[in-house]
Amino acid sequence: MKKRVVITGMGVITPLGASITDFWGAIVEGKSGIKNITRFDVENFPIKIAGEVADFDPENFFADDKIDRMDRFSQFALAAAYQAVINSKLEIKKGMRDDMGVVLGTSIGGLSSQEKAAEDLFTRGYKSVDPMSIVKVISNAAACHIARHFGLMGPNYTISTACASGANAVGEAYKMIRDGYAQAMIAGGVDAPLTPVFFAAWHKMRVLSRQNSCPQRACKPFSKNRDGIVIGEGAGIIILEEFNSAQKRSAPIYGEIIGYGSTNDAYHLTFPHIDGEVKAIERALEDAQISQEEIDYINAHGTATALNDSVETDSIKRVFREKAYSIPISSTKSMIGHTLGASGAIEAITCALTINESIIPPTINYEEPDPQCDLDYVPNTARQANIHIALSNSFGFGGSNAVIILKKFS
Amino acid sequence: MEEVFDEIERKVKEIIKRVLKVKDTEIKKESSIADLGGDSLSALSILSAIEEEFDINIPDEETAEIDSFSGAVRTVKKHIKGHK
Fold first, then answer.
1. Do B40 and A206 touch (CB under 8 A)?
2. Rounded to 5 degrees, what angle do the CA atoms A286, A292, A296 make?
3. Which of the residues of A are catalytic?
4. Where do the DSSP E strands lie in A177-317?
């Protein structure tokens, strides 16, 4: 029999705050975390803005003698996991270590350590390459540090589906508990992509916003004058538990995951395709055994590229038909930028908070209606609403689509 | 009759040949990137190689021009200093 899966803890590292309270307070107010980049010299880059996590010090979150062996992405993940474990009031006792695992999503893993090693090799030579480079760079490092730190001996793996990574990780962890392979899971997504080579490569794809002069207003999902993605960094981590065991220990319950759909467009590495997106949403609805009429809120992928936002709008209209026009839809990326592999997890957390707090966060910087994007994007101001069921879209390069459905716990 | 290519055209042709892995003779003045088997990502690679080869900056608004051999040549000529 399928088991019920509930969220009992949440933690975030975002450009708008490194705690659930700060993050939620800021997005409900419609603040922007986009600023000038300070992590590396951007003088020769045409684009100088991003959603940077300022003043991050891992020692403010956890004590661990291996901090120096972690890339920034692993430090983000462990800091967010630490918050989530505390938030869940879960004492990870010896008896449950075998039945608790970790599934994380990351688009690029420890890329900053790889770029550092390359720079050292090419400018200073072989002897200057950090021998810890491999353990910092490998994409599963973050998930393994979490397992080591908390002593979790259950299944542990890392998913990389570009910008859908975090949503796929939450979805796969949900399936493991639902189908009886684990009692509890730490799941989520993380990326720390503000590194010079990678950032230069994003420029060359010509998909970034060029609004250097007003960083806070740069990311404009669904607005006609949108001009592209703003890159962000961060992590979103949740604790998922089998419902009965969560109830037995009187755990705080922030919502229930009831559906997950995952597809690939099988079409193009960067161009989205309506069929793949629609199928992912339909599969999630089918998995949740609900009709499209029951969705009260959609947290959009909403990257602010011309193409993503119009294709996503078309996908929502194809699935929800007339109902599409009355579902509030918002893009968290308008405020924190696109945190790549972290985004799906941060947005699942946003859905859980929306359900619990009965407030829908806005899509900020919505300035001009676009006839191709003609739905209700909750423009610029948060909205009070009783939300029972929320759906979160994540679509990644490579054509990967992942959709999660969350329900108010009752 | 065989087409005559000027110096800029020959350089653009070399770039397209390299990126799309096509034969010299396949590239005609009226060829589109799609005719030659390329897609939007190959156009980006051609754009990047053109910027490097001619040391020019092509703004985002003009990237759509790089959908054919002649579009690429026109864009290069527009941005090269002193070229009319």
1. no
2. 120
3. 163, 301, 338
4. 184-191, 234-242, 255-264, 297-299
Residues A323-348 have pLDDT tens digits of 999 999 999 999 999 999 999 999 99
pLDDT tens across A19-44, in order? 999 999 999 999 999 999 999 999 99
**Of A284, A268, A355, the residue nearest A6 (C-alpha):** A355
Distance from the first to the final alpha carbon of chain A? 20
Tell me the C-alpha distance between B53 and A108, whole Å. Answer: 30
Burial class of residue A56, CB neighbours in 10 A (0-12, 13-18, 19+): middle
ipTM: 0.72
Of all residues in chain A, the one with the smallest CA distance to B61 is A206
Q: Cβ–Cβ of B60/A204 closer than 8 Å?
A: no
Q: Which of chain B's residues have a Cβ under 8 Å away from the Cβ of A204?
A: 44, 48
The number of residues making up chain A comes to 410
CA atoms within 13 A of residue A322's CA, in its CB half-sphere? 0
Q: What is the band of B1 on the pLDDT scale with cuts at 50, 70, 90? A: low
Q: Do A269 and B41 touch (CB under 8 A)?
A: yes
Which one, of B57, B40, B39, B45, lies nearest residue B18 by Cα? B45
Percent helix, strand, coil in chain B, to 5, is 60, 0, 40
pLDDT given at position A94: 85
Which among A392, A9, A370 has a CA at the least distance from the CA of A225?
A370
Distance CA A369, CA A179 (A): 44
Burial class (CB in 10 A: 0-12, 13-18, 19+), A206: middle
What pTM does this model have?
A: 0.93
| CA distance, residue A212 to nearest chain B CA (Å) | 15
The mean pLDDT value for A216-230 works out to: 98
Assign A64 a pLDDT band (cuts: 50, 70, 90): confident
CA dist., res. A327 & res. A178, Å (int): 28
What would the mean pLDDT of A91-103 be, rounded to a whole number?
92
